[in-house]
Amino acid sequence: MANFLFVNGQIRALESKLLTTQRLDRMVGAATPQDAFRILVELQYAEYVDDTVTAQDFTKIIERGLLETKELIIKGTNNNQGLQFLWARFDLNNLKRAYKLKLLQEKTELGEFTEENGFSLLGNLSPEEITSLVFNQSIPENLPEEYLEVIKSIEESEGNKEFRLIEFALDKAYFAYLNKAARKSGSVFLKKLWKMLVDTTNLRSLARSILVLEEALPKEAFIEGGEVRWLDTENIKNLDFISSTPFAEILEGINDNDASEEKLMKVEKALDLAYKRFLGDASQGEISSIQVPLAYFERRLQNSRMIKLIMFAKFHGLKPEQIYQILKQF
Predict the structure, then answer these.
(1) 183-222 residues labelled b (16+ CB within 10 A) or e (exposed)
(2) The pLDDT value given to residue 1
(3) Which of 141, 181, 240, 317 is the most buried (most CB within 10 A)?
């Protein structure tokens, strides 16, 4: 209780510096990238700016801010196991990216470990640990045991296995790990959050299979344990099925004449909003619980993506109306 109480007090104080509609409008309407950058500094990044920093450094500043926020949360909660609901997904992404480089592109190293190359520094596994694991078959001490059989299977297959089956197996290991973290915590909220993540992942996979691949959802892609059951999704060939799930409202903005890619984008956006709303509602009024750092960090992530988009748009000379159009994806 005491650990969460202290860090949550710090977080509540920091929430006032998040991106507001007024600040967003000012950034979008700024005459130059430098003017937009000055507004960015008003947020949580002033301490990283000195006379040597320019507007072109905005990505480094945003990344540094996220890493220091992560450190604040970890120290303030003694690295509570429930925080894996934040960090573990970055490890999952990094592992998928690394194995894709090795197996599909026949690379022998990761290259630059940057966001531009598909990696994130917000996970538990360092670039060195991922390199050792993927390219040297050396198991890091902090690799969750749920991944061990999957890693062994990948190495034994020598890249002959269809890559999406590898991704499905890594997804299942990830959710098994989070399930264990939720059960160990004893938190009713984390157990509900895990179920929601399972359901939204399955619905994303289902929508992608139907709209892009034009096939039924493969059994290997389905994660067990949510409210949506495999028997309910088997052989489903259109999105109407979603109307019978707790996420029926995501169909409201989808029209029959929308292109498949547009339908998929709307489904994914609606699922993202449902997740953020779930976290936001759960954190309201909380004083000493894990809901507060989870919800806050997700908002910081969304803020960072929006700010990066605006800054890149400014450097490429996009007009405000064009930027607002792109921001609709958020």
Answers:
(1) eebebebbeebbbbbbbbbbbbbbbbbbbeeeeebeeebb
(2) 45
(3) 181
